[in-house]
Structures are given as C-alpha cells and as structure tokens.
UniProtKB/TrEMBL annotation:
Ranges where the record places region Disordered: 182-201
InterPro entries named among the record's database cross-references: DEAD-box_helicase_OB_fold (IPR011709), HA2_WH (IPR048333), Helicase-assoc_dom (IPR007502), Helicase_ATP-bd (IPR014001), Helicase_C-like (IPR001650), P-loop_NTPase (IPR027417)
Single Gene Ontology BP annotation: RNA splicing
Protein known as: RNA helicase
Length: 711
DNA sequence: GAGCACTGC
C-alpha cells in the first residue's frame, strides 16, 4: 500500500474567529501549499481516475477533508455539469468544512462550493463541490435513485459506522453497479426497474412514486466512490467493495504519552478525581479533558472537585471546571472554548460529545476511565436501553488523540494495560443496536424489497429486521407480501420522522386534528424541551406547571409550542427577525425551556407541515375538542398502550413488560388507569416517557386489528 | 424521582 504524508490542521470547530479576511486567505493559501498532501495531489487524482472505488485511511479532520475535493475539481471531475458530493455524519462539520473550502477557493459559500443540511441549503446551480450530511444524500436518493448529478461521492468518517453510513454504502454500491451497466446497455432507460431493482432518475424532479419515466439520454457516467476512514481496519471496507484499493495517508498527530494504572480501579470517579489533582499539582500547564458517561457523573465530579479545591492552599486553587454534554444549553456549552483566566487551569468534564463532535482547543491531558453510556436495542421487547459499558480500543485511541492536537500530550487511562488489551477493537456498529423500522421503510422506498438479503457492511440480526417489518406492517406501511403500501407506506417514507410519527400524521388528518399532531410530533422529535438545572430545580418545576395539562405530556407540549408562538406573534410586527430570535431565547430561559430544542421543533414543524400539505393531507384543527385529539393519539400510538397495575407500575399491552412512568412526565403522580406512551427506555428502571391518559375502550374501538375484547 | 452521542430534500 502506498503511503502519503499529510498535514496537520483541524477545521472542525464551529467557533472560528473571523480575522482580517485578506490576511486570512493569504495565510490559508500558504498553509495549503505547505500541507504534505499537496505533494500527492496528482497521485490522488490518478488513483481516483484509475479506480472506481478508493479507500483512503487517514487521520480525520485534517487536510484531506478540505483538500481532496478541490484536487478532484481541478482534475476535471466536475465536467459536464457534474457535482462532487461529500457526505459525513454531522451537520456542524459539513457546514464548517464547506465554509473553509469556500474561503480557500475564494468563492462565496453557495457558489462553486456549497453545503446542504436539513433546514439549511446553501447550494445553487453553480455548486460543484457539495458538502452534506449522509442522511441528506439518502433522502435525495429517494427522488433521484441514480444520484445522476454526482460524478464522485466521498464518504467521510466511515469508521464511525453510523446507520446512515451503512445504508448509504449499500446504496452507493448498488448505484455504482447500475450506472456502470448503463454505459453498456440501455436496459436502464426502460420503463421499469432494472435488474438492480433501481428505478431511473426522474430528471425533472417530479415526485418519484413507482412509475418510472424513461431517462433522457440513456447513458450515465460512472460514479466514483471514495471511502474515508480514520481507523486502521480498512480491510473491512476493502472486502466489502470486493478488494478495493486502499491508500494510506499518514497523519501528523503530536505524540501522546499513554499511562495506565497498575491495578483495576473500583471507583473510576474517585480515580478521575485523584488524577485531576495529580495533574494539577505535578504537571506543566495545559488543560485537562475528562471523559465521563453522563450528566449525573459530570455534575457529581464537578461538585467533588470544588469541595477538594477548598482544602487546598489559596495559591494553588487555580482550577476551574467546565461541563459539557449534549443537553446543556448552547450558551453554556460554549464555555469550553473560552480560555481560562491567566494562571488558571481548565478541567473539562465531558461525555463522548468531546470524542468527535466538539474539538476543544488547549487540551494537553486526557483522563479516560474507559467507559461510555451506550444505547442498545432489544428487538424482542422493542425496548432501548442505556447502559454504561467499556469503550472499544478505537474509542480509547480517539480519546487519547484529543491530547495531541496542538502539541505533545498525556493520556491517563484509569485501567491497566492488560484491560486495554481485552477491549473490543471497535464499537459495535449502531445498526446492530437500534430499531430498524426507519431504515427498512427507507430501503423499501428506494426499491430494495429484500431487506434480509441487502448488502449491509455488517448485517443486523434477523430477529431485529423481522421485528421492524412486523411493526411497519402493523402501522399499515407494508402490504401482506411485505411491499410498501400505497398510499400509506409511500407517504410515510417521504416524511423525515419515525415511522410511528409519520403514521400519526396520516391518522390525524382523518381525525381532523392534524394541526395538533404536527406540533406534537415536531416536539416529540427533538431532545427534551424542558431544561431543569439542578440548582434551580424548584423554579423550573414551577415554570413547567404553567404549561402542564392534566391529560398528559402531549397536550403539555402543545401548550408550550402555542404559548411560544403567541409570544412571537405579538411581537412579529414590531422588530427584526434577529431580535425576535433573541426575545424567544430570553422567553425560553425564563420558562426553563431548552431554546435549541424549541428552535429545532419549530423547524421540524414547518418542514413536516409542508410535506403534509404537499401530500394533500387535510391540515385542520380540532379546536378545543381535546377528547378528539386524545382519541387520535390512541388510534396512532395503540402499539404503545399501557395499563396501571395495583402496585402503581404499568403493564405495556403489546409486550407485556412491566414499566414505570418517567419522573419527568406530568402524569408521574396522577397515574391514570390507561395511557399511551412514546418512548420506552431502560436506564435504572424501565421508563416510559411522553404519556397521555386515554380510555381503554378506545383501543378496541380504534385498533380492533390489534386489540380484541379479550385482551 | 431522572436525561450517551449523532442524524433526516
């Protein structure tokens, strides 16, 4: 395998200062030229020209992310109006890299270089280098199954093994085969599916709904694929693409000293605490990054550090703690980027958000207890769990790498080296740990009917596939012979929602309460709307009571949404959009609402409202008839109904599991007899969340196919 | 009595 050098220069933070633009551009050009990747520009372009599929192994977030697409552009891969697509799992990364490349190319973002993520499309007819999330390209494939506008697709961060990456790789492989065939015969332009099961692209962008128009021109240029992985197990990708050529690009990461404990630690929090102070008192300057599993741990370590600091003599108390985890409001997340006051050392207490999503400058020391909170899924119970589990070797490597981004660093692994050797090489791919309903619906819509036979990089279990097929069937998305149903399944596959929520919109249009359901589903689709910091728990509770509905969480969420809407409506005529946003953030803060979540819910709402209208669903409101809306909830979420048991726990009717109402629910104390819920997650207990009171008899009335009178 | 991380024309 050839080896190529590579420069160092992360571009992953969303918090770049905008310096003087000219100086910056000059600086950047110089930096580009000095990148060792620049010397292999020709070589890389040649490799792409010679190989249909190329696997490139190299350090993530470095030169290659920005440089390769530019090389390919210069090498002529955008001739004939073709576009170079670059996909990656995260929105923020897609936008920041695109911005950087636009700047390097001295064009405005949205011109030759553009990016597209959900809710934010910055591309135009002139866009030749298009950065996007992989989920977005999957959505695009629903409309244009041959992805014919792309000459190349570069899949970044393949080692992260996300569900979207796996589905995309399977799809791209198929598309590539189909497109290479189109060069030789014209079967592809037939009015029916090709042997690959792929319909032709409908070039005028009209809805693709199973009737395939003849593609003008017939012949498609081949699609080049480049798979980028930061891990060394490139062989998996190479084998998947029938022995595709692999190229290595050397990184220039600074050396990181790895230190292990002599013996296993019984209490990793205590060990972390000791290590923090050991570094603070004995090591040179530089900030510390500690990987913990969740908010609770972070808050408790934060308290312990403060306590212990008070026992130190005044002059060496110069240590500040900064927490970061995903549900923390953005303003507080930003604190990790602010340098500590002169003479102070920063200790960042983070979840694995700091492993890939957020790159924090100034880190010299990493403390890695070796655990992560991971989601898993039990298809037989239809239940997700969040468990603290040991990390993989790849994760340990990723974590220690965080200490060597700006200079040599140290990583303190709070376990013996022998334990490290016992870790799995890489993390179990997400596709083996999640509910597959969404993936299956999407594949069916892409014309892939044989899900069990689909060429996944790693196959999910048969049981998991069957469970999700069953669920989709019960929702009416699939016919008896497991084909996408028309119109319900077709409509559901168009909506960027969980299948059960998509179905709820269709049901709601029949119950004349689609207005209410659009809001509900948007609010359920985002992270927790309520934010209750520990130190202001009582205040937060009082604030939440203003919105609480005795009927349950769904109506409570509608109340929040509508109140925020009224607040905005009142001020709409008076001020600018930016001021509006600012006012809304202030309103959120006062009401203990997570403004990022509400913002997202408003975006989702407007998007799915558009979809609903396009589908011709009847968008009407049931007004004050909340009985009607609750009946609609029962009809939509009948698969998630539960009955109270004498002890106050609940029995989920579909699976027979004993569950409890999550303490965040407005119905936590009321404990009505019969409820529907939206989420079942096992943490310390089996908790159900987002709950509404219903009448048991509605189930037999509204979902007779599932509930007989005996049930 | 409690919330790992991502993502969707």
């Amino acid at each position: 395998m050839p080896s190529m050098a590579q420069g160092h220069g992360g571009v992953r933070n969303s918090t770049e200062n905008s310096n003087d633009s000219y100086a910056r551009t000059q600086n950047m050009l110089q930096q580009r030229k000095s990148l060792p990747i620049a010397s292999v520009e020709k070589q890389l372009a040649d490799e792409v020209r010679k190989n249909g599929i190329l696997i490139i192994v190299g350090e993530t977030g470095s030169g290659k992310t920005t440089q390769l697409p530019q090389f390919l552009f210069q090498a002529g891969f955008c001739r004939d109006g073709k576009v170079i697509g670059i996909t990656q799992p995260r929105r923020v990364a897609a936008v920041t890299v695109a911005k950087r490349v636009a700047e390097e190319s001295r064009v405005q973002l949205g011109q030759r270089v553009g990016c597209s993520i959900r809710f934010d499309d910055r591309t135009s007819a002139a866009t030749k280098i298009k950065y996007m999330t992989d989920g977005l390209l999957l959505r695009e494939a629903l409309l244009y199954p041959y992805l014919s506008r792309y000459s190349v697709d570069i899949v970044y961060e393949a080692h992260e093994r996300t569900v979207h990456t796996y589905v995309l790789l399977g799809l791209l492989k198929k598309v590539q085969k189909a497109r290479s065939k189109s060069g030789h015969d014209h079967s592809i332009a037939d009015n029916k599916k090709t042997s690959n099961g792929l319909p032709s692209d409908n070039e005028n962008g009209a809805q693709f709904n199973g009737i395939f128009k003849q593609r003008q021109g017939g012949k498609l240029p081949p699609l080049k694929l480049i798979i980028m992985s930061a891990s060394l197990d490139a062989r998996v990708f190479s084998e998947y693409f029938s022995g595709a050529r692999t190229v290595h690009i050397q990184g220039r990461q600074f050396p990181v000293d790895i230190l292990y404990t002599l013996y296993p630690e019984t209490d990793y929090l205590d060990a972390a605490l000791i290590t923090i102070f050991q570094i603070h008192l004995e090591e040179g300057h530089g900030d510390i990054l500690v990987f913990l599993t969740g908010q609770e741990e972070i808050e408790s370590v934060e308290r312990l550090v403060q306590e212990r600091l008070q026992q130190l003599p005044e002059p060496i108390r110069k240590l500040i703690t900064v927490p970061i985890f995903s549900s923390l409001p953005s303003e507080q997340q930003m604190r990790v980027f602010a340098p500590a006051a002169a003479g102070f050392r920063k200790v960042i207490l983070a979840t694995n958000i700091a492993e890939t999503s957020v790159t924090i400058p100034g880190i010299k020391y990493v403390i890695d207890p070796g655990f992560v909170k991971a989601r898993s899924y039990d298809p037989s119970k239809g239940m997700e769990s969040l468990n603290v589990v040991p990390i993989s070797k790849a994760q340990a490597l990723q974590r220690s790498g965080r200490a060597g981004r700006e200079g040599p660093g140290k990583c303190f692994r709070l376990y013996p080296e022998s334990e490290f050797e016992k870790l799995e090489d890489s993390t179990t791919p997400e596709i083996k740990r999640c509910n597959l309903s969404n993936v299956i619906l999407q594949l069916k819509a892409l014309g892939v009917d044989d899900i069990i036979g689909f060429d996944f990089l790693e196959k999910p279990s048969r049981a998991s596939i069957i469970k999700s097929l069953e669920q989709l069937f019960l929702l009416g998305a699939l016919t008896d012979d497991c084909k996408l149903s028309d119109p319900v399944g077709q409509q559901m596959s168009r909506l960027p929602l969980d299948p059960i929520y998509s179905k709820a919109l269709i049901v709601a249009s029949q119950f004349n309460c689609l207005e209410e359901m659009l809001i509900t589903v948007a609010m359920l689709s985002v992270e927790s709307i309520f934010y209750a910091p520990r130190e202001k728990l009582e205040e937060a509770r009082t604030a939440m009571k203003c919105f609480a509905s005795p009927e349950g969480d769904h109506l409570t969420l509608i109340n929040v949404y509508r109140t925020s809407n009224e607040f905005l409506e009142k001020r709409k005529m008076e001020i600018t959009k930016e001021k509006n946003e600012k006012l809304l953030r202030k309103w959120c803060k006062e009401n203990f609402i997570n403004s990022r979540s509400l913002r997202q819910a408003r975006d989702v709402h407007s998007q799915i409202r558009g979809h609903a209208e396009q589908m011709g669903l009847c968008v009407s409101s049931c007004g004050d008839d909340m009985l009607q809306f609750r009946r609609c909830l029962a009809a939509s979420f009948f698969l998630n109904a539960a009955l109270r048991q004498p002890e106050g726990t609940y029995r989920a009717l579909a699976s027979g599991q004993v569950v409890q109402i999550h303490p965040s629910s407005v119905l936590f104390r009321a404990k009505p007899e019969c409820i529907i819920f939206n989420e079942l997650v096992q943490t310390n207990n089996k908790y159900i969340r987002n709950i509404t009171r219903i009448d048991y008899l509605w189930l037999t009335e509204l979902a007779p196919q599932f509930y007989t009178m005996q049930n």
